[in-house]
Amino acid sequence: MKTQTPILLTTFFVSLVLMLTGCSPAPDDTEQPVTEPQAQADLVLTGGTVISVDDEIGQAEAVAIRDGRILAVGSAAEIELMIGNDTEVIDLAGRTLIPGFIEGHGHFLGLGNARMILDLRPATSFDEIVEQVAEAVADAEPGTWILGRGWHQERWDPAPEVAFDGVPPHHALSEVSPDNPVLLTHASGHASFANAAALAAAGIDADTEDPEGGVIVRDDEGQPTGFLRQAAQLAVRRAHGEAEQAMSDEERQALFERQVELAGTEALAHGVTSFHDQGSSFSDIDGFRRLAEQGNLPVRLHVAVRGESNADMDRKLPDYRMVGHGGHFLTVRAIKRQIDGALGTHGAWLLEPYSDKPDTAGLPQTPVDDLRETAEIALRHGFQLNTHAIGDRGNRETLDLYEALFAEHDETDLRWRIEHAQNLHPDEVPRFAELGVIASMQGIHATSDGPWVPQRLGTERARERAYVWRSLLDAGATICNGTDVPVEPISPIASYHASVTRLMDHGEYFFPEQSMNRMEALKSYTIDCARAVFDEDLLGSITPGKLADLVVLDRNILTIDDDELAATEVDMTLLGGQVVHVRE
């Protein structure tokens, strides 16, 4: 077992003493011996396997923590020297200690909100969804909106007998909810299903034209079915937003804080100590800032600005740029934009038409000229640009734009990102490394989407272009992993398992030649996600001097068999050296 060497320990201790005493080291020609101080730790974790994810340190047996940071990493005997009368000691009892997981792409308030509305992910038929809504209506006042999220038509077995774009019309749903508007968001977030009351509230009828970037799915008579793809769902969302305006400021603040609390609790229970939020409005960022300054943010947030106009961003971004605010709990220095939609709703922008819907190649969402304006604003104010691109055309257009701007402005190491990068033409793969663009991908999407991806793309196109992690890594690209929660559950373990096995729920493998190895997958959830937000000096590895964000697992995910990975449990989560979650 590789452990930290005494030289590394001594170097850190000497630096610590010099920092505390304010002394300078003796000149080299004095040749005075250096005595190692017996630095006392606040907390020691020992008796297990420490996977540092630091190539210089490797694996160790114990970790010492002081003042919220990692004091030392080494053998149990070395770290024992730092145990004093006031040191708390946690016996790992053979378990495994790793850096805190970093959720590389999620929606923080969306996670909290998802715990307050109907969870439609388990539904295996449209009838089950109707039953869930009927139960919610029974407990709701007339006029109250019923919200839900997580349905996916590809999970329904058998498929509906009468369907339009794979989804039945709203009539059965409307029958059980005649007095309550219902809005049910697709698992991807890129479509919604509305009942008659919600369609009426939004003013959508047979004469309503499709908005740019969206489709109102219609039946054979031209009537809206309730299925709203991409931008078509915005009208219903606006209607719901108008209904929420009746809430008082106190009610809105209480709702916001409850969403933050629920999201934080779930994140910490899964070992997530940092969260890349993609993204939030200025108003929500104001709320995050207030909580950060109060010391009430439950995890470290890296927030991208989203949903604001280019003009407003150009004016307001200087007031919202924050790095490590509130004790390293809030960073805002990214913008999130979206060039296309999702593959599941035929919205991803492809180079060739869909195999199962040859009349379309997707639904572009942001004109390239508008995205370029956003990019110029990002450059002007020192912000990253994180662009949602799923289809191979969407990724090509985004990389072309990035490359042109980097050359015009002679910029390097901007670490601009492409969120998802799910379908890449082989020509685009090496460009990620060449341009220094982060591939922000979600391992769990490959195995969750895998059963139906060949339907959308055809088998050969899926094999060549879908979720090509191995190709990206071999080309030298950085992958930052995640779950896109609440699209998928916030489980790093599930996404890690998917990343290294590509095993789908039905027992088949989704082009396993594109798998990551164990350490690559762990780095994609730790140090590489830290690097994706310029935080590699603070987070992502168990290295002396870094923040003590740590996770205790009940088994070693580098050595156990593949079939054990999915059963791995998070036993304990530490944030800044404090235990914030213990599995019951």
Short description:
By secondary structure, the protein is an alpha/beta fold. Helix content is 35%, strand content 21%.
What is the secondary structure topology, with strand pairs?
Elements: H1 6-21, E1 43-51, E2 59-66, E3 69-74, H2 76-80, E4 88-91, E5 96-99, E6 101-106, H3 108-114, E7 118-119, H4 126-138, E8 146-151, H5 171-176, E9 182-186, E10 191-194, H6 196-202, E11 214-218, E12 224-230, H7 234-244, H8 249-269, E13 272-280, H9 282-294, E14 300-305, H10 310-320, E15 322-324, H11 325-328, E16 330-338, H12 368-381, E17 384-389, H13 392-409, E18 417-420, H14 429-435, E19 438-440, H15 443-449, H16 453-457, H17 459-465, H18 469-474, E20 479-480, H19 492-501, H20 518-524, H21 527-531, E21 550-553, H22 562-565, E22 570-575, E23 578-582
Parallel strand pairs: 1-4, 1-5, 6-13, 7-8, 8-9, 13-14, 14-16, 16-17, 17-18, 18-19, 19-20
Antiparallel strand pairs: 1-2, 2-3, 5-21, 9-10, 10-12, 11-12, 21-22, 22-23
Helix pairs in contact: 3-8, 6-7, 10-12, 12-13, 15-19
Q: Could you tell me how far the N terminus lies from the C terminus, measured between alpha carbons in angstroms? A: 31 Å
CATH class identity of the domain at 1-100 and 540-584: Mainly Beta
Low-pLDDT stretches are 1-36
Q: What is the count of helical runs?
A: 22
The averaged pLDDT comes out at 92
- CATH architect. name of the domain at 1-100 and 540-584: Roll
| Derived structural class | alpha/beta
Which term fits the overall shape?
A: globular
Strand content: 15-25%
**CATH fold label of the domain at 1-100 and 540-584:** Urease, subunit C, domain 1
Over all CA atoms, what is the radius of gyration? 25 Å
Q: State the fourth-level CATH superfamily of the domain at 1-100 and 540-584.
A: Urease, subunit C, domain 1
